[in-house]
Amino acid sequence: MTITLNSKIPAGSINDKWNNYKEDAKLVAPGNKRKFKVIVVGSGLAGASAAATMAELGYQVDVFTFHDSPRRAHSIAAQGGINAAKNYQGDGDSVHRLFYDTIKGGDFRAREANVHRLAEVSVNIIDQMVAQGVPFAREYGGMLDNRSFGGAQVSRTFYARGQTGQQLLLGAYQQLARQIGLGNVRMFNRTELVDVVTIEGRCAGIVTRDLVNGEVVSHSAHAVVMATGGYGNVFFLSTNAMACNVTAAWRAHRKGATFANPCYTQIHPTCIPQSDPTQSKLTLMSESLRNDGRVWVPQNPDETRPASQVPEAERDYILERLYPSYGNLAPRDISSRAAKRSVDSGRGVGPLKNGVYLDFSDAINRLGKDVVEERYGNLFEMYERIAGENPYDMPMRIYPASHYTMGGLWVDYELMTNIPGLYAAGEANFSDHGANRLGASALMQGLADGYFVLPYTIGNYLAPMLNKPIPGTDHPAFKEAELAAQARYQGYVDIKGTRSPDYFHREVGRIIWDYCGMERTQQGLEKALSELPALYEEFQKDLRVTGDAESMNQTLEKAGRVDDFFQLGMLMCRDALEREESCGGHFRAEYQTEEGEALRDDEKFAHVAAWEWTGDSTKSIRHKEELNFEAIHLATRSYK
Amino acid sequence: MSNHLKNLKLKIWRQSGPTEKGHFEEYVMPEISDEASFLEMLDVLNEGLIGENKLPVVFDHDCREGICGTCSLMINGQAHGPERSTATCQLHMRKFKSGDEIVIEPWRAAAFPIIKDLMVDRSAFDRIIESGGFISANTGGAPDANLIPIPKSVADAAMDSAECIGCGACVAACPNGAANLFTAAKISHLNLLPQGQAERYKRTEAMVETMDEYFGSCTNHGECEAACPKEISIDVIALMNKDYRKSKLKNRKEISRS
Q1: Which A positions 127-166 lie with beta carbon below 8 A of chain B?
Q2: For residue A82, which of A223, A275, A443, B199 is within the disulfide window of CB 3.0 to 4.6 Å?
């Protein structure tokens, strides 16, 4: 298969591109839309909003989720907020500023045209969600309230207590539920994608496995949307939900979709540090806490006094010292590395000396406990439940953890992968956040893709297919994929080795975290690339899955997902090794400034690396999409 | 540093399928850190079972942050266990002592049939939302978000109801297996907001009637409120009942036809 990466960026100035696109896009007449079947995989913000909107328009939509209900998708766990260039605060915000902040936050590694469109439609998202009944925080006069997030000098973040993701997801879920009730959407719960089927160069449908009875079934469609989230669980310990996985995106990759920038992973600075070896996941504390919390460590590595007894003069407020103009709201990658260096230098806090303080005592003195409780009450309770300490009395302890993945399936301006008819939306694609995502931008992107981009772009692809037959599920390609999937899952059961999928997941996660985590080196990555294939071989020989493939078997589900994490992990390390620069979340120790900041190489690496599957992910082929910056100038990212 | 609990006796409901006969199985957990969460304790148990070539215990869980609503266990007879306003996934072993016997069962309600072991089917909740738990607002054409001011107290009250995570603890805790707290939380979230007024009575009627198809009736025990990990107040049920009564008295369907 020859790979062509045509980004299809429309003509015109950056301000006109999206309008120009919409004016030129082909349309499907209302009465004809019902002749098209669209499959949406995933029911998070991107999936639910895309499915609901396409169903409203009249398309036949089938939605698949491995959850027991579409309302469980992990978008629900986003806490802090959603950005939009509304400028309700009159503090100088604009579409251009949101666009610029997002490009700069991503360390100049995102595609300009996509990011500008994101900033443009951000304002529509807030209008839409309010119309649906999302109870955003309000001021006493009844107007919407905003707060500030990392990497921005304006207040443009809308929020619903510390549960913004929940409220937005429930909003999108309710719109989806309405369409299910009307019979416009068929919903498949507890059903996992196990393969993507391409026939004559276009995506013809998918193969799924029913998690309750193990049944493998094919579904054909005119177009397929992957809204299947990110791959942060490759690290084993992450803030992702337990079931988040890369399988759907990876299966698409194996069928020819290129996978872009897998090494761009975000490590979130404010998570609760690991406390015990049995720990299964890490919990995020919203970045919004950094509006009022101050990050510090004791000057003295041997400090033993409780935090409140360490005098001001003996504290190092690391972010305020290093980045005075953004202070505690420096972007995530920068804040994470500052915390890591403090812990590495022996100044970590807590019983395992594996965290830094996030201290609210100044905010409590300044604003009063009531105001702090109003703003962050539920986050403080959550912290106390997990860590067993009361953050009103003692500073929180925080440490970075894997949180979000900027890399993903390569898509063009229309959000179509290089396989015609196969789209990727939300965290599953790579397009808008470059090498680092700003806080409160994931919710924005998921909803932008689903509500305001895909419903326009998909018609452009479907229109010429009107009244032309598409292959049904009786086509041999579907049968072949079904047999392969059955064999794959039966294969895991038949190994009958000695180690569980979780054992292997922990081991892969450890290697990836150590060598492809917050700081990467050539030597480390090469080491990972020699250790991973050996461990993968062990996985293939020594895996143990008890039970069978014909009933509910969570161990078997996990085995398939870990298998795909192995293959993705190897590609991540390859990508990190080949990208000989530091940018955003990808920090190569060899490429840093004297002050320890990321050192980009725009001459050689101002491009997207899109990988082609060859059958072995240590031998994937690297393709390039050059990034051309017309509206902004490449600059060194400084938050000082 | 963490302390360790020793010799926990676990009595866990095992049932291989929806129509199979279930039973309690006893396990001993020799040692577990008090920093571990309840579900991490079950992870350790399951790793051990796989090690012994046995079938691990099936249970629903996902975010482990108390927000997705997937986890669902009756722990010593209490939905989500002993800690107030805490979902199972946020319950930690520091709430237990060495030597404790812990009985773990699935949600017990006729409307939530068991799939396997501790996993149940809660799709009846989705049917309720599908029948009216939304504001009909097609994408595109929404007016500016600040066009209709919403008093802070109203937005806050709507948010209090909207926090429901749809876990089903209210149903599991109710002696009648009623879903009134779940249904009323969604109804009051939407009926309180100005945007929700157009469909207010139609929504209430449709959701209440769908609820009645699947679930038992409310007799004001108040167990639902006590079990709710989000502490949603039983007051919302009064709001729902008021709107339901109004919708019937006003007979709005008739009026709209004339």
Answers
A1: 127-133, 135-144, 160-161, 163, 165-166
A2: A443
Q: Could you tell me what percent of chain A has a pLDDT over 90? A: 91
Residue with tokens 């990467």: A520
Given the structure tokens 């490449």, which residue do they identify? Answer: A634
Q: Which residues of chain A make contact with B207, given a CB cutoff of 8 A?
A: none
Cβ A194 vs Cβ A557: under 8 Å: no
Q: In sequence order, which ranges of A343-440 are alpha helices (DSSP H)?
A: 361-367, 369-387
* A53 lies within 8 A of chain B by CB: yes
A178–B130 CB contact, under 8 Å: yes
pLDDT tens digits for range B68-85: 999 999 999 999 999 999
In the predicted structure, residue A486 carries a pLDDT above the cut 60: yes
Rg of chain B taking only CA atoms, in angstroms: 21
Look at domain B4-116 and name its CATH class: alpha beta
In chain B, list all ranges with CATH 1.10.1060.10: 122-257
The answer to whether B60 contacts A68, with C-beta atoms less than 8 Å apart, is yes
Catalytic member of A332, A347, A375, A397: A332
8 Å CB contact of B92 and A385: yes
Domain boundaries, chain A: 17-263+404-465, 267-402, 476-606
The string of pLDDT tens digits covering residues B194-229 is 999 999 999 999 999 999 999 999 999 999 999 999
What CATH number labels A17-263+404-465?
3.50.50.60
Tokens of A595: 């002050």
Per-residue burial over A12-48, b if 16 or more Cβ lie within 10 Å, else e, is eebeebbeebeeebeebeeeebebbbbbbbbbbbbbb
At A36 the pLDDT is: 98
Give DSSP secondary structure letters for B169-215: HHHHH-TT-B-HHHHHHHHHHHHHSGGGSTTHHHHHHHHHHHHHHHS
Do A402 and A249 meet the contact criterion of CB atoms below 8 Å apart?
no
Q: Do B43 and A502 touch (CB under 8 A)?
A: yes
Class of domain A267-402: alpha beta
Using CA coordinates, name the residue in chain B closest to A175: B134
Q: How far lies B128's CA from each of B187, B212, B214, in Å?
A: 10, 10, 9
Among B85, B115, B159, beta carbon nearest to A161: B159
* CATH superfamily placement of domain B122-257: Alpha-helical ferredoxin (1.10.1060.10)
Give pLDDT, residue A295.
96
Q: Please list every residue in chain A whose beta carbon sits closer than 8 Å to the beta carbon of residue B17.
A: 551
Q: Is A637 a catalytic residue?
A: no
Query: Is A74 in CB contact (< 8 Å) with chain B?
Result: yes
Question: Three-state DSSP class for A162?
Answer: coil
Is the model's pLDDT at A336 over the cut of 80? Answer: yes
Inspect the interface and report whether the beta carbons of B64 and A133 lie closer than 8 Å: no
Cβ <8 Å between A388 and B68: no
Query: Across the interface, do A53 and B139 touch by the CB < 8 Å criterion?
Result: yes
At the second CATH level, the architecture of A476-606 is Up-down Bundle (1.20)
Strand partners, A588: A520
Contact B87, B69 (CB under 8 A): yes
> Tens digits of per-residue pLDDT, A448-464?
999 999 999 999 999 99
Q: pLDDT tens, B23-49?
A: 999 999 999 999 999 999 999 999 999
| A-chain residue closest to B124, CA distance | A69
C-alpha torsion sign, points A325, A328, A333, A334? positive
Nearest C-alpha neighbor of A71 from the set B63, B126, B109, B228: B126
Tell me whether A384 touches chain B (CB under 8 Å): no
Residues A356 and A370: their CA atoms lie apart, in Å, by 25
Residue extent(s) of CATH 3.10.20.30 domains in chain B: 4-116
3-state helix, strand, coil in chain A (%, to 5): 40, 20, 40
